[in-house]
What we know:
Layout: E1 2-6, H1 11-22, E2 26-31, E3 42-45, H2 52-55, E4 66-69, H3 84-105, E5 110-114, H4 140-159, E6 162-167, E7 170-172, H5 178-188, E8 201-202, E9 204-206, H6 207-219, E10 226-229, E11 236-237, H7 238-249, H8 260-270, H9 273-280, H10 288-294, H11 302-317
Parallel strand pairs: 1-2, 1-4, 2-3, 4-5, 5-6, 6-10, 7-9
Antiparallel strand pairs: 8-11
Amino acid sequence: MQIAVSGANGFVGRALCRILKNAGHGVTALVRRPSCMEEGVLERVIPDDHFASVARGNPAIGPIDAFVHLAARVHVMQDAATDPLAEYRAVNVKGTLDAASAALQAGARRFVFVSSVKALGEGEPGRPWREDDKPAPTDPYGISKFEAEQALLAFGQARGLEVAIVRPPLVYGPGVRANFLGLMRAIARGIPLPIGSVEARRSMVYVDNLADALRALATSSRPVHGVYHVTDDDDLTVAGMARAIGVALDRPARLLPVPVGLLRGVGRVTGKVAQVDRLTSPLRVSGVRMRAELDWTPPWTVAQGLAETARDFNASQMQ
C-alpha cells in the first residue's frame, strides 16, 4: 500500500514512516519544509496553510491508499494566543477536514486521525476510559481534538471514507521531549522528587507501539471505523514510572514520600492546582478494540521501551 503521513518529520511521524517502510509499504511523507527523511521515503513539501491548498489539489499528493494525519497544533501549557480555542480549531478541526478532503482527492479509502487522550478529559471515570465512553474535554486543545473527531466521522460517513481515530495517552521513546524528558533529566541528576507516595496509575504508550498500531489501522484488510485506544497495556503508578525510568538509566530514582494531600495543598498555594492534579490523579485507557478487532497487541514492553528511551537519552548527553 501507499500511505501518506502528515507531520512525518515529527516524533511519532518518523517512527511511523520507518515502521511502514520496514513492513514493505510505500510512504509519502508530507512536511512543511525539506527534511532529512530516511532512504526509501517519498518526501512531499506542502504549503504551510494547514492543508487548505492540498485540499484543492495543489500540490497533488496521490495516488495513495490511506492517509495518517499526525500534524496538529499541539498542547501548549501557557498559551499566549488571544483566543486559544479559535487557534486550535483553525488547525485541529478545519485543518484536519482539509487533510481528509486531500486524502479523498488522492484516492485514499481510509483516514487515520491521531487525536489525544485529552479529548476525553483530564481525569478518568473511576476506571480506564473505554472507546464508547462519553468524552468530557476541558481545555481548548482537548475540545478541538474532540470536535475534530466528530467532524471527521460525519465527513467520512457523508463521503464514503473510512475514518479511524486514535487517542494515545502519554507517548515516550527516543527523542521524547516536554515533561517526560524533564523527569528523565531530574532522575539522571539525582534530584529528589516529591512523588514517592503518588500511586495514581497513568497509561502510556511507547512511540514504536503507537506507530505499529497506526500501521495496523492504516493497512488492515478489515474495515476500521470509529475510536481506538492504544496503550502499552501496563499502567504504572507515577512513582513506579519514575522508578522504572531510574532502572532504565541505571540511576536510583530519589523519591520523597510526600503525602498527596500536601502536594495538592502546595498546588493551591502556588497557583499550580491543574499541574498537581494531573500529576496525582489516575488517567488510564483501555485498548480493548485494537485487541478484539485487529488482534493487535503491543510489540514492545514498557521495560523495552524505557530501555530504548534511556539509551537515546544517554547518547544525547554525551554529544
